[in-house]
UniProtKB/TrEMBL annotation:
<dbReference type="InterPro" id="IPR023753">
    <property type="entry name" value="FAD/NAD-binding_dom"/>
</dbReference>
<keyword id="KW-0560">Oxidoreductase</keyword>
<keyword id="KW-0274">FAD</keyword>
<dbReference type="InterPro" id="IPR036188">
    <property type="entry name" value="FAD/NAD-bd_sf"/>
</dbReference>
<keyword id="KW-0676">Redox-active center</keyword>
<comment type="subunit">
    <text>Homodimer.</text>
</comment>
<keyword id="KW-0285">Flavoprotein</keyword>
<feature type="domain" description="FAD/NAD(P)-binding">
    <location>
        <begin position="11"/>
        <end position="299"/>
    </location>
</feature>
<dbReference type="Pfam" id="PF07992">
    <property type="entry name" value="Pyr_redox_2"/>
</dbReference>
<comment type="similarity">
    <text>Belongs to the class-II pyridine nucleotide-disulfide oxidoreductase family.</text>
</comment>
<dbReference type="GO" id="GO:0004791">
    <property type="term" value="F:thioredoxin-disulfide reductase (NADPH) activity"/>
</dbReference>
<protein>
    <recommendedName>
        <fullName>Thioredoxin reductase</fullName>
        <ecNumber>1.8.1.9</ecNumber>
    </recommendedName>
</protein>
<dbReference type="InterPro" id="IPR050097">
    <property type="entry name" value="Ferredoxin-NADP_redctase_2"/>
</dbReference>
<dbReference type="InterPro" id="IPR005982">
    <property type="entry name" value="Thioredox_Rdtase"/>
</dbReference>
Length: 315
């Protein structure tokens, strides 16, 4: 990483602005750690592309995802966190104080760093999928399944997430049409068995999604059987994409220990990474739960871990 002309030192630097980052900022600010938070390219993170959130405790009437993230930001600001628009573009953890480059033009050094860069859902890349996103197309069955109670739904994917979400949807929707691109599933055997034994989940093998149909909201999905070459449209009100997530950890590659999918490894029961003084919270280190409330919880843990680390260091 090059040394930039514009430099600044901060006590605690938080990278990322979803529930994890903002919660870390609230706790760090209240502990007088003077956190500076860089929001990244999508301030508010994944919740800014969902509609209603009904499973975050404390909002009895539910709340719109983007509005909730504005509330998180306001609360962090009110506690004294310095929230800035900007993207971390490179890091150097080889010596302390650690360096983080922002927008390829400024270098920040920090006594402790909290990474909360989240993950992004993978999409099929169909124009219709993008056009109807939020109008029946979703990448989170746990978030949005409820809105399709008693309706027909399709889900694409064949891993553990797709299996888990198909089972979740089968309890809410009338039927779940599960679109699997090969002749077998990648999900664990136990999950596959559960899916195959559930009477209202229909599995379509060797199936490619050609298009999600509907004018302003989803009304069907056009599919192709890649073996028989037969094309057909299944009428559905919802189309869920569950083909995996991509942790936003690219700039930390070879700087921090990660698993083979790029999730940052943390010491169990903590947010400590393989580099002392660098903590990770939220979806960038969690491929199992991935909920706003669990991300917020781990953001709190990261701030407490950072506080303990700094006080042990005498900072
Ligand atoms: P995975 O990468 O395991 O699976 C992705 C699935 O999506 C695969 O079946 C893949 O098909 C399919 N897929 C990818 N691209 C496309 C496409 N363009 N069109 C159609 N299908 C596509 O992701 P998951 O999110 O399911 O799981 C990630 C990790 O998290 C895994 O290690 C999983 O075991 C773990 N996990 C564990 C859970 C638990 O223990 N409770 C719950 C959820 C996840 P193909 O098989 O053909 O490549």
């Amino acid at each position: 990483m090059e040394n930039k002309t514009s430099q600044e030192h901060v006590h605690v630097l938080i990278i990322g602005s979803g529930p994890a980052g903002y919660t870390a900022a609230i706790y760090a600010a209240r502990a007088n750690l003077k956190p500076v938070l860089y929001q990244g390219i999508q301030p508010g993170g994944q919740l800014t592309i969902t509609t209603e959130v009904e499973n975050y405790p404390g909002y009895p009437e539910g709340i719109q995802g983007p509005e909730m993230m504005v509330d998180f930001e306001k609360q962090a600001s009110r506690m004294g966190a310095d929230i800035r628009y900007g993207m971390a573009t490179a890091v150097d953890f080889s010596s302390q104080p650690y360096k983080v480059e922002i927008d390829e033009e400024k270098t920040i050094t920090a006594d402790a760093i909290i990474i909360a860069t989240g993950a992004s859902a993978k999409w099929l890349g169909l124009p219709s999928e993008q056009r109807l996103n939020g109008s029946g197309v979703s990448a989170c069955a746990v978030c949005d399944g409820f809105f399709f109670r008693g309706k027909e739904a399709a889900i694409v994917g064949a891993g553990d997430t797709a299996a888990e979400e198909a089972l979740y949807l089968s309890k809410i929707c009338s039927n779940v049409h599960m679109l699997v691109r090969r002749h077998e599933m990648r999900a664990s055997k136990v999950m596959q068995d559960r899916v195959l034994k559930t009477s209202n989940i229909m599995v379509y093998w060797n199936t490619e999604t050609l298009e999600v149909t509907g004018e302003n909201k989803v009304d069907g999905v056009r599919i192709l059987n890649t073996q028989t070459k037969e094309e057909k449209t299944i009428p559905v009100s919802a189309f869920f994409v569950a083909i995996g997530h991509q942790p936003n950890s690219g700039i930390f590659a070879s700087k921090l220990e990660m698993d083979d999918q790029g999730y940052i490894k943390t010491v169990p029961g903590s947010t400590r990474t393989s580099v002392e003084g660098v903590f990770a919270c939220g979806d960038v280190q969690d491929k199992i739960y991935r909920q706003a409330v669990t991300a917020a919880g781990s953001g709190c843990m990261a701030a407490l871990d950072a506080e303990r680390y700094l006080s042990a260091k005498g900072h």
